[in-house]
Every structure is written in structure tokens, then in C-alpha cells.
Amino acid sequence: DAGITQSPRYKITETGRQVTLMCHQTWSHSYMFWYRQDLGHGLRLIYYSAAADITDKGEVPDGYVVSRSKTENFPLTLESATRSQTSVYFCASSAPGDLAYGYTFGSGTRLTVV
Amino acid sequence: DQQVKQNSPSLSVQEGRISILNCDYTNSMFDYFLWYKKYPAEGPTFLISISSIKDKNEDGRFTVFLNKSAKHLSLHIVPSQPGDSAVYFCAASADTGNQFYFGTGTSLTVIP
Questions:
Q1: Of B52, B51, B76, which Cα lies nearest the Cα of B62?
Q2: Are B25 and B91 in contact (CB under 8 A)?
Q3: Which of helix, strand or coil describes residue A26?
Q4: CB pair distance less than 8 Å for A31 and B46
Q5: Chain B CB within 8 Å of residue A103 CB
Q6: Looking at the predicted structure, is the pLDDT value of residue A98 above 90?
């Protein structure tokens, strides 16, 4: 299916565990982003990538790791999950310079760390 | 430091009336502004945009106004419909790395 897909939709993990959230897009967009949504904070950028093998930190990168070996995939890994990382995570993609339409977002992953 | 602010966490409006959602920003380098709409359990979806060379952009019932001197933008929805009930995020970009900064969102409830 065309679009941007995130998996899993829901995840419960224990404190200290490593967990990876997956993001896949079919448009060959060069830019991909990871945001987290928290009440009172809106959407905050964790990491972004301008192309395969190019990643950069956003506003709240601590505790997260990303990789982008292929244009279409942009996984987000929590190396040692903490309760403060309980959140809804959104992946997004865009083409370069396509600012008039912003990003296309995935449906999100709701992560609960217990 | 929040560069894009939505100071009203929630707004309730009667069906058929006008909804006005507000957004303020601090970075004068921002030159593209967007509004996104988000339903529960879904990702945000693009609604309408405006570039800094304009002060108004319309799309059907939705109009975005930009006041650069005040660093303020607003989204007008006329007439409001129950299906417009959602969280609305404004976002701004300075065209550096396609990066948008988002506000905290305003939850709109349209009462039938």
C-alpha cells in the first residue's frame, strides 16, 4: 500500500528494555522525521533525516537512536526505555522544498513504558 | 523554548458559527506556516498553508490569516461543523532542512 506506515500501533514495554518503532514510506521522500506528542507539549521533534545515512537531532533526542540505511525506512530505537518516554510517536516524511504541504504523517505508535 | 505557541488549549463553538484558532510565533525567519488537523488515534493531516508573501489563503470553509508584524496567524472555519471537532496544530518553518516547529495544539469542539 502506498503511504507511510508505522508499526506497531500499540506497545507496552518495561523500564530498561530496548524497543524499536518502525516507519516505512513508499514515496521515496528524502526527508523523514520522528515526533512525540505529549499533553501540553504538542509535537516535538526527536530526530530527522535528510536522506539515507544522514540523520540529525531534533529538540528531544536524548535516549533515542535512529538509523536510515534505506530511503524508505526510518526506525526509532529507545535504547533503555524510561517511563518519561511513554508517549505517542509519529513518523512523517516530505519531499525536499515541499513546504507548502508540510509533512505526511503516519498513524502513530502509542508506547507505554511500565 | 517554544517558538510556536497556541495559547488556547481548547475552544467550543456552536455548529454554524465561526471558529477562530490562534497561533503566535517568535522566529522572524519563519516563512511557511501550516495548519494540521488531528483526530484521536490518527496522525495529523495537512489542512491549509500560507507563505510569508501572502496575508490570507482560503480553501473552502477554511481561511488562514497571517500578520507578520505581529508574528500571528489564525485559522477561521466558517461555518463550523461537528466533523471539525479535532485538535488543530499550527506549524512554522524557516525552510532549513524542511523542519517545521509545531504548537501545542487547540482542541476544537463544535456543538451540534
A1: B76
A2: no
A3: coil
A4: no
A5: yes
A6: no
- Per-residue model confidence as pLDDT tens digits over B3-62: 999 999 999 999 999 999 999 999 999 989 999 999 998 999 999 999 999 999 999 999
Indicate the pairing of strand A10-13 with strand A19-25: unpaired
Nearest CB to B99 within list A48, A100, A108: A48
DSSP letters along A44-86, please? EEEEEEEETTEEEE-S--TTEEE--SSTTB--EEESS--GGG-
Question: Scanning every residue of chain A, which has its alpha carbon at the shortest distance from the alpha carbon of B50?
Answer: A100
- Partners of residue A96 in chain B, C-beta under 8 Å: 98
Report helix, strand or coil for A100.
helix
- Write out the DSSP string of B84-108: G-EEEEEEEE-SSTT-EEE---EEE
Q: Is the dihedral of CA A32, A37, A41, A47 positive or negative?
A: negative
Residue B11 to residue A43: CA distance in whole angstroms: 19
Nearest alpha-carbon partner for A28 in A60, A73, A59: A73
Question: Across-strand partners of B86?
Answer: B108
Which residues of chain A make contact with B49, given a CB cutoff of 8 A?
Answer: 99-102
